[in-house]
């Protein structure tokens, strides 16, 4: 992935700053469900985080970030800036105003508007404070446990997916999904399908971002799109279920299959058109 000269000032790097220990209470969720939550990409984790309590654990010592960590910060600042520029442009083209999200880099545990965030959860977006939370150790897990080819652009894809959830919040999609969930009129299986549509739309938006940003900045290099697809496929529900339990239960899908994640990311990338991303009508007919 080609780096640009843009850097965002909306990135808060909390690594090395110390902090209180935290504890995430499972709330009775089964082991397999927790495993899925831990390794899925994004979405609104507030239902889980709402059960988080501060354990009053030990304070960790502050430390200086090493050169590699500083480079990671610069990379995240660059990708954040490119999401801001691209989505500002897309919103303006559609007569809307884009509100930039914040991005937090953290390690181990930190506080979010949705509750206590832990590294084991992977990257996520919190609509309550309009912030993307990133612990970079997730990408080691993505490669070692789920077989993804991790490159700079696969990290950019994950960030773009989370920013896609921010776009959903700005467009009112997140709020509509929450209203459906809170209404109690739909079965768990039906809400799972809504969740799949939500996640695949975020993948679609990540593809739109990749196309539009490359058109403007020529950021893509050979193999970049393939590495994004590898990351998307690695966190497909079917792949995670096979690796965690040995079988696939489609009714329990909440993020989409590997094939679906690839399909919708590529549709966003190939069209570059935000209007082509109605995953809800496509999946919920």
Describe the structure.
The chain has about 280 residues and is of the alpha/beta class. The protein has one domain (about 10-285). It contains eleven helices and six strands. It has helices spanning about 30-40, 45-50, 65-95, 140-145, 150-170, 175-185, 190-215, 225-235, 235-245, 260-270, 280-285, and strands spanning about 10-15, 100-105, 110, 115-120, 125, 130-135. The strands form two sheets. A four-stranded mixed beta sheet has the order 1-2-6-5, with helices on one face. Helix 5 packs across helix 8 (about 225-235) and helix 8 (about 225-235) runs antiparallel to helix 10. The longest helix is centred in the C-terminal third of the chain and has 30 residues, at about 190-215. It is globular and about 50 Å long. The model is unreliable at about 20-40 and about 45-60 (pLDDT under 50). It holds the Pfam family Zn_peptidase.
What is the compact description of this entry?
Keywords: Membrane, Transmembrane, Transmembrane helix. The chain is of the alpha/beta class.
**Integer-rounded radius of gyration:** 18 Å
Portion of residues in helices? 40-55%
Number of helices: 11
Low-confidence stretches: 19-42, 45-59
The coarse silhouette is globular
The count of domains is 1
The largest β sheet comes out as:
4 strands, mixed
The count of β-strands is 6
| Strand numbers in spatial order across the main sheet | 1-2-6-5
Based on secondary structure, the structural category is alpha/beta
């Amino acid at each position: 992935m080609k780096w640009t000269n843009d850097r965002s000032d909306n990135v808060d790097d909390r690594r090395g700053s110390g902090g209180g220990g935290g504890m995430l209470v499972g709330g009775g969720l089964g082991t397999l469900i927790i495993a899925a939550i831990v390794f899925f990409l994004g979405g609104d984790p507030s239902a889980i985080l709402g059960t988080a309590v501060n354990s009053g654990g030990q304070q960790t010592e502050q430390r200086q970030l090493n050169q590699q960590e500083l480079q990671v910060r610069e990379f995240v600042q660059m990708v954040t800036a490119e999401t801001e520029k691209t989505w500002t442009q897309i919103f303006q083209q559609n007569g809307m105003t884009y509100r930039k999200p914040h991005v937090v880099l953290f390690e181990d545990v930190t506080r979010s508007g949705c509750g206590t965030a832990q590294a084991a959860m992977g990257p996520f977006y919190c609509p309550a404070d309009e912030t993307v939370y990133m612990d970079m150790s997730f990408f080691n897990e993505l490669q070692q446990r789920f077989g993804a080819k991790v490159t700079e652009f696969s990290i950019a894809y994950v960030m773009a997916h989370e920013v896609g959830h921010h776009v959903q919040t700005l467009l009112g999609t997140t709020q509509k999904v929450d209203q459906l969930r809170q209404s109690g009129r739909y079965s768990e299986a039906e809400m799972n399908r809504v969740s799949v549509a939500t996640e695949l739309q975020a993948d679609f938006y990540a593809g739109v971002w990749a196309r539009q940003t490359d058109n403007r900045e020529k950021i893509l290099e050979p193999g970049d799109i393939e590495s994004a697809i590898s990351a998307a496929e690695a966190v497909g529900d079917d792949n995670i279920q096979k690796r965690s339990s040995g079988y696939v239960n489609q009714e329990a899908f909440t993020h989409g299959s590997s094939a679906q994640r690839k399909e919708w990311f590529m549709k966003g990338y190939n069209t570059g058109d935000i209007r082509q991303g109605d995953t809800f009508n496509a999946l919920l007919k």
